[in-house]
TrEMBL record, chain A:
UniProt entry keywords in alphabetical sequence: Cell membrane, Lipoprotein, Membrane, Palmitate, Signal
Classification via PANTHER family: ARABINOSE-BINDING PROTEIN-RELATED (PTHR43649), POLYGALACTURONAN_RHAMNOGALACTURONAN-BINDING PROTEIN YTCQ (PTHR43649:SF33)
Lineage: Bacteria, Bacillati, Actinomycetota, Actinomycetes, Nakamurellales
Name of the protein described by the UniProt record: Sugar-binding protein
Superkingdom as given in the UniProt entry: Bacteria
TrEMBL record, chain B:
Top-rank taxon: Bacteria
Localization: Cell membrane
Record carries keyword Hydrolase: no
Broad class of the protein's primary localization: membrane
GO biological process, one term: transmembrane transport
Species annotation: Nakamurella endophytica
Ranges where the ABC transmembrane type-1 domain occurs: 92-283
Family: Belongs to the binding-protein-dependent transport system permease family.
Name of one Pfam family that matches: BPD_transp_1
Protein name: Transporter
Recorded topology in the membrane: Multi-pass membrane protein
Keywords: Cell membrane, Membrane, Transmembrane, Transmembrane helix, Transport
Residue ranges of the TM segments: 42-62, 82-115, 127-151, 163-183, 216-240, 260-283
Amino acid sequence: MPRSLRSTATRVVSAALVAATALTLSGCGGSSSGSSSNGVTTISFWDNNGGPTRTPYYQELIKRFEAANPSIKVDYLGLPADSVQQKYDTAIAGGGTPDIGGVQQSYVAGLIARNALEPIDDVADSATLKGNIDPKVLDTIRSTASDKKLYMLPVSVNLDILWYRSDEFAAKKLTPPNTWDDFFTAAQALTDPAANTFGFSIRGGAGGTQALLSIMYAYSGVQTSFDSSGKSTINDPKNVEAIEKIAALYGKETSKADVTNGYKEMSAEFDGGTAAMMVHNLGSYADHQKNLGAGKFAAEAMPAAPDGTRTLVANAPDGFAVFQASQHKAEAKKFLEFMLSKDSNSYWNQNVGQLPSNLQAQKDAWVQANPALKVGQTTLAASTTHIVDVPRYLPQYGSIVESQMGPKWQQVLLGKLSAKDFADQWADLTTKAQADWVAKHPG
Amino acid sequence: MTSLPLTRSGVQAQRSAGGRVPVRANPWPGRLSRVARLYGPLALYGLFTLIPFYWMLVFAFRPAGSDRPVPWPLSFANFDTVWNGVGFSTFFLNSVLVAVSVMIATTFVAVAAGYALARFRFRGKGVFVLVLLCTQFVPGAMLLIPLFVIFKQIALINNLGSLIVIDTVFQIPLAAMLMSTFIRGIPFELEEAAMLDGCSRLQAFRATILPLMQPALVAVGSFAFIGAWNNFLFALMFISRQDRFTIPVGLSYTLGQYNIDFGALAAGGVVAAVPVVAVFAVVQRYLVQGLSAGAVKG
């Protein structure tokens, strides 16, 4: 080795070792939970979907909160949406949970089951928030816990709606579907396989069974997840009919690639002009707005059942939870109350394109001016709208819906399993899980 | 006339019988033949490998809203987003620190362990090698919680030191095996001669073995660097401070729940790939030599 190279290498090695040692020795250890010093309490806040589209708005709200509460400092940590559950799981098992964290109702039941969360009914009943958070959404969240307490509060309200390409509907002189007959007629009219354009995009891959639940209950108008004897309604004859009709669209009024569609593929088909309709929640508004621009897409409530009622499967809302291990619960709850107050909630949702959970914020001009959010708000407020609470409190819920029934939904689309058998298997698994849960939670 | 198939055995049979070997006419004359047989497949393979990189560059440098297949006019807006908006300026420095430290620590330990395995006979050596190999079968995700607890107890949570330690530990087994194979290929007589001239074992190692080990050092070091550079899981799990995350965590910020910022993702990919490409460009001539060391020795 040449002498100059050797001396350079020696210097690099020495510098790196010194730096690594210094870092190792100087780093702050301990749990992620906050600390107190000089009269200032620091609380840690984990965002469950960090990134440039959300982080700046959280940082602005934190700045406002700290200005109004000089004795509290908030440490923000943005986490990637795909890995946040694993991060929470590790933090709970290892003892490093934050004081307050962003959560989704879809996995909050698992956190409650491990006693990781603090009940926050008192925050919902605070002077700022009492009566101002959508009660239908609060009921849905309460259903997650066996003690019917609130373990999370929603930052946004979400519901599944029918997104459609208004430009393609106008070109074919079609009106937005109000009933399921309208929907199937439009799907056929908007399909032109030679031009690689299809009427609908089925979500056959990740999240497909959850989307199917929304469609089948909206079609059937069945308004409960279980009948009076505790049996799942998934295989109700009208639900089976819905599955058959949607599966019959596959490969004819949909692309054959739909069998593996997750949200991103489905949304790409819609925004790219391959599919004219898709079912998804309000969360995709910002995506369509960015990719298509105004005037090319619109939202419509899920088509009505034959009796005119609209049945929506409760969408897992995004929100905040205070963690049981927090040493600063009072400060964390104060921050939570601030985040859900009218001004903060409105600011946040306006910038991320979601419907505010605060009813006062829902009245703001920007919500009324946004056609998609207006559809969501009107649908939720309508007396003819019924919400079906799916049993997200069941420990096996995620496994049944995604892991077990997901591949079978693909078999139905490919014609390898009948809709009836599929629905029966799904209903049996859900009924059994419910019976186990009831046995463990009497009363 | 019946023609024999043009196989090696057929040709030999004709030669031994004194007959003339029928020569099949080459359908590709001269230069064209070389292009068709050598450069054609290479070009195809190159295209297959490079097209994804090309698309990454197109998305990274293309202005928002453009759908041109070439990145023109050039735009650095996506780089501004990831560097200043997402925080890559901080993540990049953290990644460099972790990867360089892991590279140095892994190489140092691997040289020592490899030398011991190659030159010494000791009781339990076979078992030790087996255990070393078995550690490669344990996925990192399985060890997350125990590691989290250990690091918490020694105050290494939220500290880049935890990443340096764990990445080094995961790199060492393969690195030590590779190093021992290489050292075994260097004749012991070289060290022996140095020791006869009065060198201690360490001096003999530095004088005779170390200069010959450059390819192995480069191979082991670059693999350790790349392994640490790309590690996402440990960086996410053991760090809970925004200013201490590394590049892979930063990249995942561009993948939202409902949306993907492809431009920022591609720009982040370019930033993440540059150091790895640079490392390979510098060390590639040593790399093959280091990896194939001992491969044909009896």
